[in-house]
Structures are given as C-alpha cells and as structure tokens.
Prior knowledge:
The protein has helices at residues 29-37, 46-56, 70-82, 103-111, 124-131, 149-159, 175-186, 209-213, 243-252, 257-268, 272-279; strands at 13-16, 40-43, 61-64, 87-90, 115-118, 139-144, 165-170, 190-195, 203-208, 223-227. By secondary structure, the protein is α/β, with parallel strands linked by helices.
Amino acid sequence: MYRQKSFENDRATLYLVPTPIGNLSEMTSRALEVLHQVHYIAAEDTRNTVKLCNHFEISAKLISHHEHNLNVAIPKILSLLEEGEDVAIVSDAGYPAISDPGYEIVKEAIAKHYNVVPISGCNAALDALVVSGIAPQPFLFYGFLAHDNKTKKKELEKLKHQMVTIIFYEAPHRITKTLNLMLEILGDRQMSLCRELTKRHEEIIRGRISEILEIAGDLKGEMVLVVEGAKEETVEEVFETTIKEHVQQFVDEGMSAKDAIKEVAKIRKINKNKVYEEYHKG
C-alpha cells in the first residue's frame, strides 16, 4: 500500500491535464495554471498541442507521448520526474488515459511513488452521458469497440446482458456497421448519438438504434454513443455451455433428444424452437 498525499511532500508530480474537446473557452484556469507552471508537457500530438500552447502563451517544452512511442516516451518522462521536474500529460482533446495515451505512464509513475494528480476538465463521455436522456447511473464506459466485425460481435455479445448504461466512442466511417451489429445483438434499444460536442455543429440525436441507423451514413465527426442497458426481464442466465452442448449433456445421460430440447428450453427460459434449431444445426 502507498498513500499519496499530493501536496504534502517534495516528490515530483505527473499532472493529468484535460484539454477542450472543441471549444477552447472550456480550458479551466487551474489547467492553464499547471501548464504555465511545468517546464515539460507530454503531448499525444505535439502539432496539435503547440496550437493550444500558442493560443494561451504557454512556453513549456513539448515531448511526444503517444501509443506508438511509449518505449521511448515513458523512460524520458520518468527521468524528468527523477530529476525533480513536474510533467503535465495532455491528449489531443479530452482527458488523458480515457481512450487516449496516459494509463501506462500513470502506472509507472505510481510504481515509483511520484505524485500523480488529476486536473478536472473536459471529458466527451460524461458530456454525452448527462445529455442523453438515458439513466446516467450506473454506467459502463467501454470506449472504442474492435475495428473488425468478428471481434466486435464477440464484444457486444459479452455486453448484451449488462443492465447498465453503456458509453462507446466511434468514428464516422464505422458507425453504420457498428449500429447494425448493435441492433442485431443488443436489440432495438434507446440510445443517444452525440457528435461534434461543444463545437459549432454540435448535434445530439436521441431515439432507437433502428431510427438513428437510418441517418447514420450521413453523419460526420467523432461520435459518442450512449446505449441503454438490458432490461431485467430480457436478461438470460449466462451458461458455460452452448445450447447444443447443453442438450447433448441430457442426451448422453439417456434422455431423448425431444425431451432434452424441452428441458434445455425450460432451464434457459427460451423458445423450444430456438433450442431445436441450435441442436440440429450442422
């Protein structure tokens, strides 16, 4: 166990500083104070962060810190902390470590007992959650689903029984395929699609998955999807075996296939025809 008293020691500090997701006026005074105070800022993309620094007249030196250079960036940041330098971590927009780089260096800094301090600020997931019109708690932040459909299907299958609101991030070129899979696996649930949050063309679309799917192909910009959780009456018990394997277990114990199908349908609380089809599938 290690107790961090953030402002009662002389250890160097790693600050997690959120940046605006679209509207620069949402930069907080404390975030600006920290960025003016530190000598080094570790940025997901220095080309984007330099614009922010120029706008607010921040003179800290920028260090590249993204998912493809962590083996170089993390030792560099740790060496600065070892020298007593405070370092701020920023992503291109929003909160570091939330579907952005940050978690790995946070873990390393904690292990070496440096202070790791969060600065309050912008987060697209929470913005979308509170305006969705869907129950805001409990909720699960999932972030981006896998890009390939096969893996994405498996992820959604694991999530379909969750009785909590689920938040996803998605890119415009994948939104139609993602919503089609959600409709197929999760069913036609209520959802909210938020795009261009805090920007001039901000849009919040609320409705059923099938309704939003009809216009999804025309939507642009990074998106946050807020999807209602499974209803209690539709949640099925999760079994370790497939339907076919379950039926076969009863058959192996001497039960007829017909009776085994009936028994499995009763245990799983599903339609007998569905069990029959699964069992006789090739």
